[in-house]
Amino acid sequence: MRTFRMPPTAMVLGGVVSVQFGGALASNLIDRIGAAGTVSLRLALAVPVLLLIARPSLRKRTRRDLLAVLAFGTVLGLMNLSFYLSLERLPLGVAVTIEFIGPLGLAAAMSRRRRDLIAVAAAGLGVVLVNGHELSAVDWLGVGFAALAGLLWAGYILLSAETGRRFAQLDGLALSMVVATALTVPAGFATAGAAELLHGHVLLAGFAIAMLSSVLPYSLETLALRTMRPAVFGILMSLEPAVAATAGFLVLHQRLAAVQLAGMVCVVAASIAITRTPRSEAPDI
């Protein structure tokens, strides 16, 4: 009897689609319970599933192991909160495009190639274009939250690698999600209220977002990276802004102007250019 095995490329693309459509659903929920309520619900509902899958243990763990989990979880929680705060003010495709500057900047800084610095400059132009408005009409607070999420995403990449070296499989991620949940849940209850967060429809939507934005993409990416070259993984991840714009259009009916789409193309092209840099010269995003 043959067992079905999903190709690693399909796993990564599935994860990209999953997380962006999860973001589209989160945008709808944010309108009801706010950014802090949505991110706390997403993390709190994802944690039990990840703990059940990973079944991590803290036995024989060093102080540095625990500090790595604490740092990773803190950055993970703040990254998601910042991104959801940007979704309160910006279209999904715009927020993801701005956020993408974080990992691009990290990759360029670590490669130190002139070509990659030029690519980041092109991505910066893309961010300017993707706002698509007169300066007076730009929601600078939303842009700031998206940029902060991108900066935290760069930290997430570094801490994820460190945690991955110290913990097997999904163990480090599962434990870090516990930290992220503990950090965000108090803010969620304070802003949204227990009655609203524990409403049946809200819990159902939160569970769907947890599966689409956390459990499914993290699991698929982890499995894919066992056999996929990191450079290929990075190129596929570069499609996230375009997928986000598609999800925003299909789920939220958010239409982007031609100049915004041009800005998105600049960022995607810059990401692919940086990712194609030899592995010895740049990290994967």
TrEMBL record:
Coiled coil: none
This protein's UniProt keywords: Cell membrane, Membrane, Transmembrane, Transmembrane helix
Transmembrane among keywords: yes
Coarse class of the protein's main subcellular location: membrane
UniProt superkingdom: Bacteria
EamA domain boundaries: 141-275
Topology versus the membrane: Multi-pass membrane protein
Compartmental location: Cell membrane
GO CC, alphabetical: plasma membrane
Transmembrane segments: 36-54, 66-86, 92-110, 117-134, 140-161, 173-195, 201-220, 232-251, 257-275
Family: Belongs to the EamA transporter family.
PANTHER family: INNER MEMBRANE PROTEIN YTFF (PTHR42920:SF11), OS03G0707200 PROTEIN-RELATED (PTHR42920)
Protein name per UniProt: EamA domain-containing protein
Organism per entry: Kribbella flavida (strain DSM 17836 / JCM 10339 / NBRC 14399)
